[in-house]
């Protein structure tokens, strides 16, 4: 069994956002595991619960938010990147947590495979 850490920097309109979600789902459905999902840069917007219904930008956000709420993977949002984009704990979607870059450093050390979606 391999543990994966995924870095998602693709914003809601980027194709990498949905590719990352499909990959995370596939990992979780396999014999492998997700050590951590880390959202950074524009990827933090996927965790904004107010973006859920924002037209095409909301499609990727809605898909991520529905999956995270249902499956409860370790979904961490960089607090610094989130604050720069107006995302605070009040508008953070269910299942996501705010944390610093130290959590990503931990994921780099603990995950056996690291994949970046930008």
Properties at a glance:
5-stranded parallel β-sheet; Sulfur relay protein TusD/DsrE; Hypothetical Protein Ychn, Chain: A; 41% helix; Sulphur_relay_DsrE/F-like; DsrEFH-like; alpha/beta; 4 helices
Describe the model.
- The radius of gyration is 13 Å and the shape is globular.
- The protein starts with a strand and ends with a strand.
- The protein has a five-stranded parallel sheet, sandwiched between helices.
- The protein is built from four helices and five strands; from the N terminus they run E-H-E-H-E-H-E-H-E.
- It has helices at residues 15-29, 55-71, 79-84, 101-110; strands spanning 3-8, 33-39, 75-78, 96-99, 113-117.
- With 118 residues, the chain is an alpha/beta fold.
- Strand 1 (3-8), helix 1 (15-29) and strand 2 (33-39) form a beta-alpha-beta unit.
- It has one domain: 3-Layer(aba) Sandwich (Hypothetical Protein Ychn, Chain: A).
- The mean pLDDT is 90.
- Helices cover 41% and strands 22% of the residues.
- This is Sulfur relay protein TusD/DsrE.
């Amino acid at each position: 069994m391999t543990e994966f850490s995924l870095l998602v920097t693709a914003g809601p309109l980027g194709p990498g956002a949905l590719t990352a979600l499909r990959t995370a789902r596939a990992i979780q459905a396999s014999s492998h595991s997700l050590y951590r999902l880390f959202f950074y840069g524009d990827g933090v917007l996927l965790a904004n619960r107010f973006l859920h219904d924002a037209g095409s930008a909301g499609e990727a956000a809605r898909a991520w938010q529905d999956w995270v709420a249902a499956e409860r993977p370790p979904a961490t949002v960089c607090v610094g990147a989130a604050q720069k984009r107006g995302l605070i704990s009040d508008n953070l979607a269910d299942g996501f947590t705010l944390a610093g870059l130290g959590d990503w450093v931990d994921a780099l050390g603990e995950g056996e495979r690291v994949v970046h979606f930008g």
